[in-house]
Amino acid sequence: MVIAEEIILFSSAILTKTIINLHSLLFIKMVLRKEFFSRVKQYYRFSQPEITGIIASVFILGIIFSFRDWGVQQFDLTIGLTHLFLVFLIAAISIVFHITLQKFVGLSRGYNPEFKVWWVGLFLSLILALVSNGRLTLVLIGTVFSTLMIKLRLGEFRYGFSLLDNAIIAFWGILANLIFASLFGISLYFYPESYIFYKGMLLNLIMAFCSLLPVPQLEGLNIFFGSRLIYYIGFILTAIVSLILVTQTKIGLTFLVISTIIAAFIFYLVSSEK
């Protein structure tokens, strides 16, 4: 137990330092707050293909993550449907928040991110869950593809399409999952028997890890080619947060809360208007 706490303590120190060093890459806004809110009001929306992809992703993830939860010792339809509905809710909120942060960051930098579902990955996730009797859970739902909005980029330094900007937009989706996983994980510490907190933490952690895979239809490839530094930091950050949340140690969760407060404070300082 002492060794585990020392590992958590060391990991938390790395996490805090990583968050501080990331601010120059991830948290600097390109526009005034007034302009940002104007862009969100004008351009923030989900297209019909996006809505279709989100609904399909929620439906399949609901089946995958509730597959083994249709009764304790024997099949129970009421319990199963309840768990299925709860996972539907968790998946919907997590996916929408994931994409929303990416859209916000994209608009602030002059891009229009649009979610495109990866149908092959989605059905592959379902097949693997069925074959493994629900033991192998993957979240291969797709990624956002950012389109350059030229009129929003004019006047900016190197206003053309930027692989670094593309990596940052993709990375914020993973940060969204880590934020949700942390909220669910911390709540799970106080309510260890909660089904929704456990599934929420698990789904978001797996979604963050799967999003980092460097394959063409996932965000990991955009991050990998846009910035190796962001990719490696993202992988380390996800691993550390997962370790802290899964072990559920008091010292680890305390450092996670402190690190989050530091990150929020840094975000507030560096996101001031030009």
What does this structure look like?
The protein has 274 residues and is mainly alpha-helical. It has one domain. The protein is 72% helix and 5% strand. The protein is built from eleven helices and two strands. It has helices at residues 2-26, 33-43, 48-65, 77-108, 119-131, 150-153, 163-190, 195-211, 219-226, 228-247, 250-270; strands at 111-117, 142-148. The protein has a two-stranded antiparallel ribbon. The protein is globular. The chain starts with a helix and ends with a helix. The mean pLDDT is 84.
Write the layout of secondary structure elements.
Layout: H1 2-26, H2 33-43, H3 48-65, H4 77-108, E1 111-117, H5 119-131, E2 142-148, H6 150-153, H7 163-190, H8 195-211, H9 219-226, H10 228-247, H11 250-270
Antiparallel strand pairs: 1-2
Helix pairs in contact: 1-10, 1-11, 3-4, 3-5, 4-7, 4-8, 7-8, 7-9, 7-10, 8-10, 9-10
